[in-house]
Amino acid sequence: MIYIDNRQNKIEVTEKLIKNVERIIGYALKEEGVNIDSEVSVIFIDNEQIKEINKEQRNIDSITDVLSFPMLEYEDGSVYKEVYIDYKFCEADLDEGKLVLGDIVLSLERAKQQNQEFGHSFLREVCYLTVHSVLHLLGYDHMLEEDKDRMRKREEEILNEFNITRN
C-alpha cells in the first residue's frame, strides 16, 4: 500500500505525478525483493516544512529535497534483499498485516528548483527523489563511496525501466 499525502500548496500535484510515484515505488519494492504486503507513506511538502523537519530530526538547519524515515534496521552496508528477503516477520513487525517500510518526505518546491537547475523534467526529479528515498527505506546509503556507487546504479536501473532519463 502506498499512501500519498499532499501537505503543500505551492506546486500542483497532478494525477500523472501521483500515478508515476506509485508505479515507481511498487516496481522498486518488487525489484528489491519485498514480497510481503507493505506500506510506504509519501508526504509532499514545501521548503519551509522540510527545513523544519530537517532541523528537528537531523539537527541540520537547511532546506533539503527529500528525507527518508525507514522503519526497519539494517547493519552497515546491508539492504532489504540481503537481510529480510526470506525473513519471517512476526505480528509485532506488522500493522494490520502489512510491513511498514517507512515514510518519505519530499519537498516539491525543492524538486521544482532542482529540475530547472539540472535541466530535466519535474517528473524526472520527483521520480528520482522517490526512488532514492525508497532505496534508503530498504537499507541503501551513500556515505561510503562503494555504497554510493551501488545506490546510484540501482537508482538508474529502476528509472531506466520507466524511460525516465536526465534528458
UniProtKB/TrEMBL annotation:
Zn(2+) binds at residues 132, 136, 142. Keywords: Cytoplasm, Endonuclease, Hydrolase, Metal-binding, Nuclease, Ribosome biogenesis, rRNA processing, Zinc. Its EC number is 3.1.-.-. InterPro entries: MetalPrtase_cat_dom_sf_prd (IPR023091), YbeY (IPR002036), YbeY_CS (IPR020549). Its cofactor is Zn(2+). Binds 1 zinc ion. This is Endoribonuclease YbeY.
